Amino acid sequence: MRKLVIEKAAIRANMAVIRKRAAGAALYGVLTGDGGGAGLIPLARMLRDEGVGRFAVGSVEEAQELREAGFVEEEILMLRATVDREELERLVDLNVVCTISSVDTGLALNAVAENRSTVAEAHIQVDTGMGFGGFLVGEPEKILLAYRSLPNVALSGIYTQLHTSPKGSEQEVSAQLKQFHQVLDAIHAAGFETGLVHAAGSYALMHFDAARLDAVRAGSVLLGRCRRTQGDGLTTVGYGEAPLSEVRWLPKGHTVGSDKLVTLKRPTRVAVLPVGYQNGFGVERPRASGFWSLWKLWRQSRQRTVRIGNQRVRVIGSIGATETILNVTDVKCSAGDTAVFDLDPLYAKGFHIEYR
Fold first, then answer.
1. What is the pLDDT of residues 86-126, one digit of tens each?
2. 229: CB partners within 8 A, 6+ apart
3. Residue 143: left (phi > 0), alpha (psi -120 to 50), or beta?
4. pLDDT tens figures, 274-320
5. Handedness of CA 323, 345, 169, 186 (dihedral sign)
6. Rg of the chain in Å (alpha carbons)
7. How far apart (Å, rounded) are the C-alpha atoms in residues 126 and 128?
8. Which residue blocks in 57-149 are alpha helix, DSSP H?
9. DSSP 3-state of 110
10. Which of 59, 63, 160, 214 could be bridged to 126 by S-S, CB 3.0 to 4.6 A?
């Protein structure tokens, strides 16, 4: 059986780093994308055991899974606005904190709440340059309209999403935060309370103290799979295990690979690992920024290794769609033996998730 192994100790170590960086700010565990590939419910349970009581999701289905799994008292924030009536009805029934990103999304949520004779809770989303959604900073009157004209919506928070380029600077983030604070000032000047204010996602949490406001949103940082810097204290979480499907000798001159053939220069004992790029093996995002980091990532892909027992073996040729060939000439192994390899949970497919 192919397994995606999630180490509990590594997540706990990352939580310690995150808490230190949060410095007392409220913490949202971001569970979008099935918990970053680590499994929505098992990751949520582990975070709850670590004292996390606020979660953020990206779909109605994720919110429903949490509620059905016993996350009844915890706050769930939907990080996506919608005008779809069916989605809004489900979100209100699940007692999810919705996102209002425009006058239209606010009116749609208010109408659903009014029809159900209830008050829905929501956070305002402000667009400080990312473009995916939110009220524009240059149109504060529309935001104030949401505070004045939605009697069936309780606005308990406001947030933005900070964009940071690979060479993201303090100045770049400061400019966005300045815009965000101008919106907050306009709301306060009109006599309204903003509630919980948050701006920092995983990268901003780890790199920009000024982005740490009332709350922070921790997603990829939980697994140490965010953009990294040397000495950040994070631990990379997630590795794969799979049994070798075949071990055999190939003669000198035999070709190996798929899109780029490699000609063997000597008789070589090879093992077939039944995992390829369609399973997420070798698919990864840069964990740091800059040209040298990208070069290092390319070089690592050229020298990719897999562990069998206590020994490292190299991949021969390119990784295939569903299979990868390993050089095991000097390794004692046979079909059925377990191979261990790095695997980003976000891209893993066809693996049984196992927490250890």
1. 999 999 999 999 999 999 999 999 999 999 999 999 999 99
2. 206, 207, 288
3. alpha
4. 999 999 999 876 555 554 444 444 445 556 899 999 999 999 988 99
5. positive
6. 24
7. 6
8. 60-68, 85-93, 103-115, 140-149
9. helix
10. 160
